[in-house]
């Protein structure tokens, strides 16, 4: 069994390792050489010289291979599909190494990837060799939201005796963005916004005279097609009123101090925001005071709107403390437009007085919903938070871990008791 190799990092980016076999042979050769010279024993000197020569040849072979990778590898490209991954959804990677001088037939390439992209396991690549290059294909299994490093690839050089090896980094590292996992809540989000719409617009359906018409665009909500005008013109046209009578939504995302709590909150807030967009309403996602991103989207969700909303979650970090989380949420509440009657959905953990005071005025419209997530140990604090929000006009529930988001969301809309 081969033991743990001794490694060293060189300035040229290559990592070398001498295996115990090589270390032992070099030490034995040196010892034999000393003994042979001391006793004037030609056989011992010959054996020692042979051993030392073998180690020297191995080192020379390694050096030659490292030099070849440095001079003969022309380019390394990496393609990730899709370009932005989603936690829990596999992705594919293709690494193409262009090389000259026939080195492609001998190259041993392995890829490096952050554990967050592989689920902590090793990646197995299929390798295709061509006269002027090597292509690696493998699958990623991202498990965490964020930006993670992929690469650089490593070209390994070995000697025929198995005494040592060297890895040389080739190409550049690649940053891969991973969106949070989301859950489809479109049906219930549409129901929620429909109730708000009817309350806001008095259940009034705009007449054709109230709006202007424009040509149908791919992705427009078919409910906005004006069929009579479409029949007269021979092409689809839609009402172009700028969401008259259609209520916007603001999703407030609290930033818990717990990393696991933050990931759940991000998934919940992103799911609600995307589902509201999918239901055909403008949506604004607010998270933190300094790291606030607002996204307005109209009609059915386009890929650009979806990407913008999810990109806003990539760099979110847990708060330093519960007090800091309260301060950030209070600042977020101050960014909710005061001149609009938005539906407000807050995804939070048990709150302190600072956050509760900031959220209370948003309940005056009767269009504020709060999902308060908590572990069982914090049940009492969560109940006090819900009681305070309800007293301010909010609809609010406690969701105790590990209740699924779909169940918690359904209970929030009906506000059934826990």
Q: Fill in the CATH topology of the largest domain.
A: Rossmann fold
Structural class: alpha/beta
Order of helices and strands: EEHHEEEEHEEEEEEHEHEEHEHHEHEHEH
Number of domains: 4
Main sheet record: 5 strands, antiparallel
| CATH architecture tag of the largest domain | 3-Layer(aba) Sandwich
Give the distance, in angstroms, between the N- and C-terminal Cα atoms.
58 Å
Nearest-angstrom radius of gyration?
31 Å
Please report the total strand number as a whole number: 19
Q: Which stretches of 5+ consecutive residues score pLDDT under 50?
A: 1-18, 202-211, 241-245, 290-294
Strand order of the largest sheet: 1-2-11-10-6
The portion of residues assigned to helices is 25-40%
Average pLDDT works out at 77
Q: What multimeric state do the chains show?
A: single chain
Silhouette: elongated
Layout of secondary structure:
Elements: E1 6-9, E2 14-18, H1 20-38, H2 42-72, E3 73-81, E4 85-86, E5 91-99, E6 108-110, H3 115-118, E7 126-130, E8 133-140, E9 146-150, E10 153-158, E11 164-170, E12 174-179, H4 186-201, E13 213-215, H5 227-233, E14 237-239, E15 249-253, H6 259-278, E16 283-286, H7 303-311, H8 322-333, E17 343-348, H9 353-359, E18 368-374, H10 379-391, E19 395-400, H11 405-414
Parallel strand pairs: 4-12, 15-16, 15-17, 17-18, 18-19
Antiparallel strand pairs: 1-2, 2-11, 3-5, 5-8, 6-10, 7-8, 9-12, 10-11, 13-14
């Amino acid at each position: 069994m081969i033991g743990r190799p001794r490694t060293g990092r060189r300035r040229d980016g290559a990592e070398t390792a001498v295996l115990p076999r090589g270390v032992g042979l070099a030490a034995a050769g040196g010892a034999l050489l000393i003994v042979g010279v001391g006793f004037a024993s030609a056989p011992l000197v010959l054996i020692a010289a042979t051993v030392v020569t073998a180690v020297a040849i191995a080192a020379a072979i390694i050096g030659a291979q490292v030099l070849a990778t440095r001079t003969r590898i022309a380019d390394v490209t990496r393609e990730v599909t899709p370009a932005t991954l989603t936690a829990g959804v596999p992705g594919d990677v293709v690494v193409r190494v262009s090389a000259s001088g026939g080195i492609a037939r001998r190259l041993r390439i392995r890829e490096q990837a952050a554990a967050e992209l592989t689920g902590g396991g090793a990646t197995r690549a299929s390798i295709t060799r061509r006269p002027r290059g090597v292509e690696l294909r493998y699958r990623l299994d991202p498990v965490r939201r964020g930006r993670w490093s992929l690469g650089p690839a490593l070209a390994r050089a070995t000697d025929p005796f198995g005494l040592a090896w060297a890895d040389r980094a080739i190409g550049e590292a690649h940053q891969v963005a991973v969106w949070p996992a989301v859950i489809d809540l479109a049906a219930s989000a549409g129901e929620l916004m429909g109730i708000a719409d009817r309350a806001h617009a008095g259940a009034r359906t705009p007449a054709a005279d109230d709006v202007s018409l424009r040509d149908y665009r791919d992705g427009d909500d078919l409910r906005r097609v004006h069929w009579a005008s479409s029949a007269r013109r021979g092409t689809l046209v839609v009402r172009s009123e700028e969401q008259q009578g259609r209520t916007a939504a603001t999703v407030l995302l609290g930033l818990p101090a717990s990393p696991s709590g933050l990931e759940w909150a991000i998934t919940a807030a992103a799911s609600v925001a995307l589902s509201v967009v999918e239901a055909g309403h403008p949506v604004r996602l607010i998270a933190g005071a300094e790291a606030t991103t607002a996204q307005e989207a109209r009609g059915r969700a386009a890929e650009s709107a979806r990407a913008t909303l999810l990109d806003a979650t990539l760099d979110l970090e847990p708060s330093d403390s519960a007090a800091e989380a309260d301060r950030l949420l209070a600042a977020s509440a101050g960014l909710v437009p005061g001149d609009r009657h938005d539906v407000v959905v807050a995804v939070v953990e048990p709150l302190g007085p600072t956050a509760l005071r900031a959220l209370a005025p948003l309940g005056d419209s009767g269009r504020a919903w709060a999902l308060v997530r908590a572990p069982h140990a914090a049940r009492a604090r969560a109940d006090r938070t819900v009681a305070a929000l309800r007293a301010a006009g909010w609809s609010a529930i406690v969701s105790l871990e590990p209740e699924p988001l779909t169940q918690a969301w359904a209970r929030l809309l009906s506000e059934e008791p826990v």
